[in-house]
Every structure is written in structure tokens, then in C-alpha cells.
Amino acid sequence: MNSLPIIDISPLYGDAPSAWQSVANQIDQACRQWGFFYIKGHPISPARITQVLDQAQRFFRLPVAEKLKIDITQTRHHRGYGAVATEQLDPAKPSDLKETFDMGLHLPADHPDVLAHKPLRGPNRHPDLAGWEPLMEQHYRDMQALAQTLLRAMTLALGIERDFFDTRFTEPVSVLRLIHYPPRHTASSAEQQGAGAHTDYGCITLLYQDAAGGLQVRNVNGQWIDAPPIDGTFVVNLGDMMARWSNDRYLSTPHRVISPLGVDRYSMPFFAEPHPDTLIQCLPGCQDEGHPPKYPTTTCAEFLLSRFADTYAYRREQQAV
Predict the structure, then answer these.
(1) H or E stretch including 67?
(2) Which residues contact 150 (CB under 8 A, 6 or more apart)?
(3) Which fold has domain 6-320?
(4) 314 pLDDT higher than 70
(5) Residue partners of 51: CB distance under 8 A and separation at least 6
(6) Where do the Fe2OG dioxygenase domain residues begin and end (predicted)?
(7) Distance between CA 157 and CA 186 in Å, rounded?
């Protein structure tokens, strides 16, 4: 239990049922034992990663005043720039030593959900950088497709319809996030971490991390182990929403980022979340007489908003209004 499994998902882009089942079995085992694994054999090209990473570095090098033109605390649908210490993932530690950019599914101002002022629904707020918007919007779509391919494989192990997740991920509230972690020496105290220990909120996360390292995962024995960058892979982990769906058959595992010494770290997680009205309730195959449902039914939006309020002071203030 000292290294995460690496799963080749290239068979998911073919039609052989036995190959699909083999990959599904590997994913199922990793989700039960770890809640974390690497994937290789995916269709996101190295050239694409380089393009997105270059744009992320350009954005985070901008003056703070320029980045704050799309300040995330000034929107009700959680899009834009989050300054250093905006988040506090571990309540026992200082706010996180990182700055962020968040985007989601772009919904125009005349979309019914936007007109109804539904939370987490609205237009993206992009910086004014040449080439940024079309690249990021395309990368968002491609990462969503990759996430849904993984979820389709999970249905084989979970005993649910092949299109179970696809039907629930129409107009999703998935988030593409870009993160810059300044070097550790810039921390406000020795206790300030890049990202405090936490579990992810939602369904499934796909993470690109650069060569700086710093990601750590807590194994079932309570030990923190390194999850180093591996060329050509994404780190995949499950969130609390998937744990609820599976009645804790699948693990939502604590993890953290220790800011590297002397270098900047960049990462790009994609948080795949369903349509906000999706009911999150125990799957039929994950309950029986000996394992009744552990959690009450909720919706995707209700659950995410409750978790955002725990992490972001500005969300708590907005909800109190």
C-alpha cells in the first residue's frame, strides 16, 4: 500500500467486451482499496497539456489587480480567480498557499437556469489573454468526455445501466481548475500547506500535475504516501458524492499538497460533477439487508453548496444574506 495503481484505459476506446471488463475490474479494485489511481492510454495529448499549462503560467504571472478583474468572490456561480489564501481545505491549518482559476460549463445569460438564479450556473469569466478562451473551453469538453468514459467503465462493476452516469451528466456542474502553488518559503507560517488535508466533494477528479511533485495521499493504514507525477498520466480520485452513491463501497480518500521547496507548482484538476438536480442516493447494487443505505438522499447542488460553505468564507457570507 505504498504506491497507487496505474491503469491503462486504452481498451475503453475499443469495442471488446472482455477488455472493457478487465479495465472495469481494475478500476473497481482501485476504488475499493484506494479511492485513487493513475490512468494512462487516454486521448488527451501532451501537446494539449503543454498549451494549457503555458496559458496557466501566463495568467498567474499577471499583476494581481488584473487577475482580480475576475475575482471569484464577486460572483454567485463560483467562476474566476481565487487569490492566495481564499480557500481553507483543512480547518486545523492556515488558509491554503495557492491561487486558482475556476471555470465550468458556460451557460449564457438567457439560459433558464441562469434566469432562475440557480447556484453554480452561469457564464464563464475568462481573462483577456489571446487564445485563452477557445483553448480552455475545448479542454473542458475533452476532460468531461474522458471523465464520462471512466464512469461508463465503473457501471460494469457497480451493476448499473451503461448510460447511468451519461444521463445524469447532461449540462453538468463539472469544474476545470488551474492552480498555482508558490514556493514553500513564501508561506505565512510553517503550518501553511499548499492544500490542506481534505477529501474532494464530488464524483470523480482527474488531475494533471507538473514535475514539481508535492501531492500526498493517505492510505488505509493512515500513512501519507507520495503520489509523484508520472509522464502521460492523470491521477484519478473519487469524491464524497461517489462515496455516498456507492454506500462507501468506493473510498473518498484524504489527500494534501505540500508546497515544493524553491519552485512553483502548477496543477490542473478536473472535477466531474453531474447535473445539479441529480439525486444522490444509494445505488441498488451497493445495498442489501446487511448494508442498508448510510446516507439520506440529497441533490448534487445541495451537497456541493454545503461543502463549499465549509471551505470558502465568501460562500458562507453569501448564503447568510
Answers:
(1) helix 64-67
(2) 9, 12, 27, 39, 204, 206, 236
(3) Jelly Rolls (2.60.120)
(4) no
(5) 135
(6) 171-274
(7) 45
pTM of the model: 0.93
Q: Is the CB of residue 44 less than 8 Å from the CB of residue 9?
A: no
Q: Domain locations in the chain?
A: 6-320
- Do 252 and 218 form a contact (C-beta atoms < 8 A)? no
Beta bridge partner(s), residue 6: 38
pLDDT of amino acid 151 = 98
State the virtual CA torsion across 107, 108, 113, 117 in degrees, nearest 10. 110
Distance in angstroms (rounded) separating the CA atoms of residues 241 and 247 = 10
Which string of DSSP letters, residue by residue, matches 176-224? EEEEEE--GGG-SSTT--SEEEE--SSSEEEEEE-TT--EEEE-TTS-E
* Residues contacting 231, CB < 8 A, separation 6+: none
Q: Which residues pair with 292 in a beta bridge?
A: none
| 6 φ/ψ angles, rounded to the nearest 5 degrees | -115, 125
The answer to whether the CB of 21 falls within 8 A of the CB of 9 is no
Q: Compute the mean pLDDT over every residue in the chain, rounded to the nearest whole number.
A: 92
